[in-house]
Amino acid sequence: MANEKSKTEHAITIKEVARLAGVSSATISRYLNGKMNRMSKETADKIEKIIQDTGFVANATARQLSTRNSQLVAVVAADIDDYFSTEFFKGASSVLEQNNLTAILFDSNSDKQRELTNLKIINHQVFDGLIIQPLINNYPELRSLIRKGLRTIILDRDLHTNDWITVETNNQTVSQETAAYFLRQQFTDCVVVSEAVAGISTREDRLAGIRSVYPEAQLIEIDNSRPFMKDNEKKVLDIIQADQAAKRKTLFFFLKERLLLSFFPTFLHQHLLTDSNISMTAFSDTAIVEGLLPASKMIKQNPFLMGATAAEILSNQLKNSATKNDIKKHIVIPAEFR
């Protein structure tokens, strides 16, 4: 009976959605095509909730497929400009392919509004599963935005829920270990360079690990808008000048490799790469930084394995209609400081 009910819910028609919402079929059609200028926000929200609750899929072919399997998995990356995102997608797509599933990449481009748009598109199309590196860090909010019944794996975030399986890195402990190493090397000051930290569990955990060793670590938050370097270069150089005047050794801890590479010309032009009182480290997933700073020690994640792990779990879920209760809900793929 449960399976029969699920099929009935997925086969719901536009007319039935319209009846539940108390509007015309034409209004539902306009909503599905993004033409909401002729309806109130209350009506749009009501339609969205009904679609979420019923698992409605937009067209006849999709409805037919949704009662079987589409073999499609949506993979939502926070920002494909980051090597991490492209690598975890490669890992996920390779495993999904082995399981006769096709990965479709969506890029949120570090923009929550773009993420919302991606999720709406995914909800209205035929996807068997979802792997997401979310910008929305609140479980109830994200839960409300994902179609009911869509198998979902969270990657690179901790939403503090057991309703979804999470695959992430040991962000806090490896950051703490790294900071402790540099403190032992007599680097008494620490400057953390990151995109906005609040609301992104990965960055919050990394900063917490660093501040467990450097309680007074300064934080420079980078705005993702372009160009952003001029003002931020000044912030960094002001800190360096103050520390040099006080003869303090300073560690610059970049929470993302791309930020280190953005600042690299500044350190190069200011002859800071050879200054023994200045050191840099970062979460670095490519060989680029090793080539530029061969003597440096960086934190190495394994995004390919993280994506592959998430895909393996999702593939197993899709093969088995029921998820085993004893499956581990929080999976950590350790990063290494080396």
Low-confidence stretches: 1-10, 63-67
Give the second-level CATH assignment, the architecture of the largest domain: 3-Layer(aba) Sandwich
Alpha carbon gyration radius: 23 Å
What is the overall silhouette? elongated
Please give the count of helices. 14
Work out the helicity level: 40-55%
Order of helices and strands: HHHHHEHEHEHEEHEHEHEHEHEHEE
Tell me, rounded to a whole number, the average pLDDT: 88
Count of beta strands: 12
> Pairing-aware structural class of the strands and helices?
alpha/beta
Number of domain units: 3
Could you tell me the CATH topology label of the largest domain.
Rossmann fold
What's the CATH H-level superfamily name of the largest domain? Response regulator
Question: For the report, how would you describe the main beta sheet?
Answer: 6 strands, parallel
Q: What fraction of residues sit in β-strands?
A: 15-25%
The CATH class assignment of the largest domain is Alpha Beta
Q: Output the strand order for the largest sheet.
A: 2-1-3-4-5-11
**Gap between N and C termini, in Å?**
55 Å
